[in-house]
From TrEMBL:
Subunit structure: Homotrimer.
Binding-site list for phosphate: S46, H78, R103, T104, H105, G135, S223
Name of the protein in question: Purine nucleoside phosphorylase
UniProt binding sites for a purine D-ribonucleoside: E204, N246
Record Pfam families: PNP_UDP_1 (PF01048)
Record's function text: The purine nucleoside phosphorylases catalyze the phosphorolytic breakdown of the N-glycosidic bond in the beta-(deoxy)ribonucleoside molecules, with the formation of the corresponding free purine bases and pentose-1-phosphate. Cleaves guanosine, inosine, 2'-deoxyguanosine and 2'-deoxyinosine.
Positions of the Nucleoside phosphorylase domain: 40-281
One example of a Gene Ontology biological process annotation: nucleoside metabolic process
Keywords: Glycosyltransferase, Transferase
Domain of life, source organism: Bacteria
Record-stated family: Belongs to the PNP/MTAP phosphorylase family.
Enzyme class of the recorded protein, top EC level: transferase
């Protein structure tokens, strides 16, 4: 049995509270999966998809477009399935992880509410932590493709926000220090950096990359920051992990391509998936 779509408010209607749609999505996930609540959510970006198989037992796989407010992914390399995974911990306790494989990017033109819907749904399922991953361009020549970087802060250069009206949220420690410490327990060598999100879908120009670097960015990409803001608004702890898939424009000696991003993600996939799974099991 599936949720009655006719009873779900229209996420694109300005009169609709997007949190109502998130609750409807969470109800659908609970109904289909049989899992009443989830503890942790993962948003898997380019290259990170293999982590789900290493976490634990898959309880349910749900086509994301069947969940209220979600659509099929439009970007190659992104999964279209939302999964509920059960982790049996060493102390005998059980955790449930919600793996969101259908990320909406701002450049798709579906609106900021759609971008934030995944993390809002995660919060509605009961999750208290979200791990946001992405593939991105690096500004440091020493960070070769395949390098994982923990996010310590971000620059939202999209000109957009998932927050509406007089909604004031403190972002001082947006990327939770405690979670970064856990990641360092798994791999003490992981560097930390500042991620800058541009709107896309075009890659950044060399001048834009230099501008971001002067503003303090170490990484550039087209996702994550709006989701992180929405997650903090919902009360979630946030861990951000970036995979450097290429050197950014002006740093790279060759032209950029999405095929390069996919290739780098595929090569790094087994290593970063193992890393992510080990970090999640500590949370």
């Amino acid at each position: 049995m599936t949720s009655n779509a006719a009873s779900v408010p229209d996420l694109d209607d300005p009169a609709t509270d997007p949190l109502d749609v998130a609750r409807a999505a969470a109800d659908h996930i609970a109904e289909v999966s049989g899992v009443e609540g989830h503890d942790i959510a993962l948003v898997l970006g380019s290259g990170w998809g293999g982590a789900a198989e290493l976490l634990g037992d898959v309880v349910a796989q749900i086509p994301s477009h069947e969940i209220p407010g979600f659509a099929k992914p439009s970007v190659a390399g992104h999964l279209g399935t939302t999964r509920s995974i059960r982790i049996e911990r060493a102390d005998g306790s059980t955790r449930h992880v919600l793996v969101l494989g259908s990320r909406t990017h701002l450049y798709e033109g579906r609106g900021v509410r759609r971008v934030a819907h995944g993390v809002r749904t995660a919060a509605a399922t009961g999750a208290t932590t979200v791990v946001l991953t992405n593939g991105c361009g690096g500004l440091h020549i020493s960070w070769r493709p395949g390098q994982v970087v923990l996010l310590k802060d971000h620059l939202n250069l999209t000109g957009a926000s998932p927050l509406e009206g007089a909604t004031f949220v403190d972002l001082t420690d947006l990327y939770t220090p405690r979670l970064r410490e856990l990641a360092h327990q798994v791999d003490p060598t992981l560097p930390e950096g500042v991620y800058a999100q541009f709107r896309g879908p075009q890659y950044e120009t060399p001048a834009e990359v230099r501008m971001a670097g002067l503003a303090g960015a170490d990484l550039v990409g087209m996702s994550t920051t709006l989701e992180a803001i929405a997650a903090r608004h919902c009360g979630l702890d946030v861990l951000g992990m970036s995979l450097v898939t290429n050197l950014a424009a002006g740093v790279s000696p060759t032209p950029l391509s999405h095929a390069e991003v996919l290739e780098a993600g595929a090569k790094a996939g087994p290593v970063i998936s193992d890393l992510l799974a080990r970090v999640v099991k500590l949370i």
